[in-house]
Specification:
This protein is about 40% helix and about 20% strand. The chain has about 240 residues and is α/β, with parallel strands linked by helices. The chain has one domain: NAD(P)-binding Rossmann-like Domain (Rossmann fold, 3-Layer(aba) Sandwich), CATH 3.40.50. It has an eight-stranded mixed beta sheet with strand order 3-2-1-4-5-8-9-10, sandwiched between helices. Strands 6-7 form a two-stranded antiparallel sheet. The longest helix is centred in the last third of the chain and has 18 residues. The radius of gyration is 18 Å and the shape is globular. The relative contact order is 0.14. Bound molecules: NADP nicotinamide-adenine-dinucleotide phosphate. The site of NADP nicotinamide-adenine-dinucleotide phosphate (NAP) has 24 residues, from helix 1.
């Protein structure tokens, strides 16, 4: 049985797009919103889209807290919140969950898109600090919501870069990426790698504007189907 996936910010562009693909792959999906009625309306729209594509996938809508409680895996598809208040208030509901931050703290000015400074290093590390009872990873930063939302679009040429401090959690997110794009995600290391992944999105947006496209990320010479090697634990120090 596939994990139930909750998508907080599930009424937004990225949340709806990921929800569509994950539901089509067989995950029961619960969209979360600050307004449960809005989440239910979005869920009904996604069910219609999926039905038109021949899928009887399960998508429901709920408040963010109820969605978090229902999900085994919880995607954070909300805007960056410098105060962290909107995440902190969900900490009890998110305890014990595998949380995937998709959040990109970005600014836009006359020079174009740019990464914003985050006190904790990255939005993902901020989330981890706010959710000590959850396992926090980060992924899906570089997918373009309209590309994901178009179910006819082949995403298997794009890599989803996955970071996190827990190896088992990273492996689950790598598989979740495959359920979105058809291609397993690529593990890029500890959660602090989000300091690189999040602002890299500003580069992609700048490329999109310059070349009028929806660019994606592809790591060359990596076979994502090959299991990542696991670092051996250091041998214990021997004291004579
Ligand atoms: N769009 C993309 O292509 C893309 C790609 C990769 C990553 N991302 C990242 O994914 C996140 C969502 O992006 P998006 O484009 O989907 O944004 P969006 O369309 O604005 O949707 C975000 C959703 O989050 C909720 N929300 C808004 N303000 C909030 C707040 N202060 N606290 C809690 N929830 C709030 C809203 O839902 P309710 O009002 O229903 O609660 C909204 O529908 C961002 O961090 C973005 O950087 C986006």
């Amino acid at each position: 049985m596939s994990d139930t996936v909750a998508v907080l910010g599930g009424t937004g562009a990225l949340g709806r797009a990921l929800a569509l693909r994950l539901a089509r792959s067989g995950h029961p999906v619960v969209l979360g919103s600050r307004d449960a009625a809005r989440a239910r309306a979005s869920a009904a729209e996604l069910r219609e889209t999926l039905a038109a594509a021949g899928s009887d996938a399960r998508v429901e809508g709920a408040s963010n807290a109820d969605a978090a409680a229902a999900g085994e895996v919880v995607l954070l598809a909300t805007p960056w919140d410098e105060s962290g208040a909107s995440i902190a208030e969900l900490a009890p509901a998110l305890a014990g969950r595998l949380v995937v931050s998709c959040i990109n703290p970005l600014g836009f000015d006359a020079q174009g898109p740019h990464g914003l400074a985050v006190a904790e290093g990255s939005a993902a590390e901020q989330v981890a600090a706010l959710l000590p009872a959850s396992t926090v990873t980060a992924a899906f930063h570089h997918l373009s919501a309209p590309s994901v939302a178009d179910l006819d679009n082949d995403l298997s040429g794009e890599d989803v870069l996955v970071c996190g401090d827990d190896a088992a959690a990273r492996a689950r997110v790598v598989q979740l990426a495959a359920d979105v794009t058809g291609r397993p995600g690529v593990e890029v290391g500890a959660l602090r790698q989000a300091r690189v992944l999040e602002p890299l999105t500003a580069v992609i947006i700048a490329v999109n504007k310059r070349y009028k496209t929806r660019a994606g990320v592809l790591m060359t010479h990596v076979d994502p189907n090959r299991p990542a090697s696991v670092k051996k634990a250091a041998a214990p120090e021997v004291v004579a």
